[in-house]
Backbone:
């Protein structure tokens, strides 16, 4: 069985777990009524199930290739992309001024989740374009917007993000790419960029690269970096692709997974580009794209986890092996340990998905109202959504392989693809370690005020649930204590040693909160039973994480770790 999208799951979450009604109540998103949201989710679900999911195996077995300077995509990907573009899904959250739907990012997150579950390698393409659209809407000149946004939003053109260089990964400020003023409003951009997702394709009318580079007057480090829009084909006077620019795909990376997504080494040789945003303001402009991209990466991993879970569930419900302890149909799904694995996967997917959607709701409310409290909330939740979402994607894909037993190690079953594809999500758009550093550093720089406000909400839900909320109440209290410890540390190294555990502990408690809300909305139902499983078996893991987070710096020296 191929992946099947579940729009109903998202409708439940938006209605009962995250406050999407508050988004629809704003003037900006007044059209996002429950009926509209249901129609959007249903249509995106049909496309993901019927058109994208069948492309998943071909993308793995017949990856993108570079032939005579032309990138050839996997079989069926061009048709799949056309369905995405023609359905308007690239511009779902883009401004109507340039042809977008203007819908909330929350719905875009739900749609991208379903598309990623169906075929992550292809979904990466429109997601990169969506990020470029966001950056151009926020920072580009009106002239650039007029030429590029309609084509990007329609899906006629595709967009990329060019940050990384061989010597400049997480340390973006070490980049060597340069941009020299041509004196006519354009710049000559020169340099090499690596790890460029969907650096080119044969089905894009134009591929538009956002490139970080340093002008001659740029100081060393990130403060001297500017952002440039460098298209594959320079638009002519009518805005159509004109002459070829001085850039090329030098090679495609041979990767562990995501074979259908061409990851390019890009070379720019005095390529014509236009500056986006202010001089030396490249990082600020790029972070408009990257912050949402981090939520998008978490969403990709959650969607992939859903695909892996569905495949494991189907296998477990059909595979007969040994005498079962739970009766039922006599399949391995009736073995307690297999049932535990299935329940753990489903419960963690629900928790991670709810955290991501809660983050998206805060982002929509911040955009619609300008409320500083909502901006602080989305800032706090973004690193958690990215890191916990991707950790969940990896753990679910791993567990799904375990459910398959020996057959999981055989490529024929297709389950290994999910693990190979999802593994990079914990690395790109800022590793999960970087997300945790961001959380205990910048995001607690307010003395933990926003974190404590969120804990107050969780504590209120726990109190309202009475005895059913006791486990969550205890977990919130420990999270409160650990956060207080974090913000009281004068030595940042103490925080950093415990940062990953702090983030994972925080995510575990958030997951318990969202599960409890689901249980309150579905008393006696399957969601209440799943919540009981999470609260009793998965939530307790917060205690180990938070205890480790308060351990402070280790005195282990590098020499102690030598072989």
Residues:
């Amino acid at each position: 069985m191929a992946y099947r999208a579940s729009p109903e799951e998202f409708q439940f979450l938006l209605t009962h777990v995250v406050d999407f009604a508050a988004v629809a109540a704003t003037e900006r998103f007044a059209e996002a009524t429950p009926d509209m949201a249901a129609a959007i989710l249903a249509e995106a679900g049909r496309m993901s199930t019927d058109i994208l999911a069948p492309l998943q195996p071909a993308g793995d077995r017949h990856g993108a290739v570079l032939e005579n300077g032309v990138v050839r995509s996997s079989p069926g990907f061009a048709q799949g992309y056309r369905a995405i573009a023609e359905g308007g899904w690239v511009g779902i959250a883009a401004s109507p001024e340039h042809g977008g739907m203007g819908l909330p990012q929350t719905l875009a997150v739900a749609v991208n989740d379903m598309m990623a579950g169906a075929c992550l390698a292809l979904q990466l393409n429109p997601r990169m374009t969506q990020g470029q659209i966001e950056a151009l809407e926020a920072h580009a000149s009106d002239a650039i917007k007029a030429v590029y946004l309609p084509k990007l939003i329609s899906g006629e053109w595709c967009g990329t993000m060019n940050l990384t260089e061989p010597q400049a990964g997480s340390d973006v400020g070490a980049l060597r790419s340069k941009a020299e003023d041509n004196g006519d409003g354009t710049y000559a951009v020169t340099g090499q960029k690596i790890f460029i997702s969907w650096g080119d394709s044969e089905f894009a009318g134009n591929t538009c690269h956002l490139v970080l580079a340093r002008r001659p007057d740029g100081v060393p480090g990130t403060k001297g970096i500017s952002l440039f829009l460098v298209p594959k084909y320079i638009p002519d006077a009518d805005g159509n692709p004109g002459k070829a620019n001085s850039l090329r795909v030098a090679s495609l990376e041979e990767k562990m997974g995501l074979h259908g997504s061409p990851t390019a080494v890009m070379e720019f040789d005095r390529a014509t580009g236009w500056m986006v945003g202010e001089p030396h303001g490249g990082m600020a402009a790029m972070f408009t794209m990257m912050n949402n991209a981090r939520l998008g990466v978490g969403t990709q991993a959650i969607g992939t986890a859903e695909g892996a879970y569905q495949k494991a569930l189907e296998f477990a419900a059909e595979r007969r092996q040994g005498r079962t302890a739970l009766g039922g149909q006599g399949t391995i799904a009736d073995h307690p340990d297999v049932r535990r694995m299935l329940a753990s996967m489903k419960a963690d997917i629900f928790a991670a998905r709810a955290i991501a959607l809660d983050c998206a709701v805060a982002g929509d409310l911040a955009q619609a109202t300008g409320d500083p409290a909502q901006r602080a909330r989305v800032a706090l939740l973004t690193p958690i959504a990215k890191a916990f979402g991707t950790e969940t994607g990896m753990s679910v894909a791993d567990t799904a392989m375990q459910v398959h037993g020996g057959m999981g190690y055989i490529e024929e079953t297709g389950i290994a693809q999910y693990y190979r594809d999802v593994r990079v999500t914990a690395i790109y758009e800022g590793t999960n370690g970087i997300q945790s550093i961001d959380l205990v550093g910048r995001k607690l720089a307010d003395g933990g005020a926003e974190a404590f406000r969120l804990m107050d909400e969780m504590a209120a839900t726990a109190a309202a649930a009475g005895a059913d909320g006791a486990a969550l109440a205890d977990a919130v209290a420990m999270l409160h204590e650990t956060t207080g410890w974090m913000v009281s540390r004068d030595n940042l190294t103490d925080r950093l040693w415990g940062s990953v555990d702090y983030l994972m502990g925080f995510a575990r408690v958030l997951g318990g909160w969202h599960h409890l809300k689901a249980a309150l909305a579905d008393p006696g139902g399957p969601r209440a039973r799943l919540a009981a499983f999470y609260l009793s078996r998965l939530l307790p893991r917060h205690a180990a994480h938070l205890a480790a987070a308060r351990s402070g710096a280790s005195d282990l020296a590098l020499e102690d770790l030598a072989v």
Notes: The chain is about 55% helix and 10% strand. The radius of gyration is 23 Å. The domain at 7-153 is CATH 1.10.540.10 (Butyryl-Coa Dehydrogenase, subunit A; domain 1).
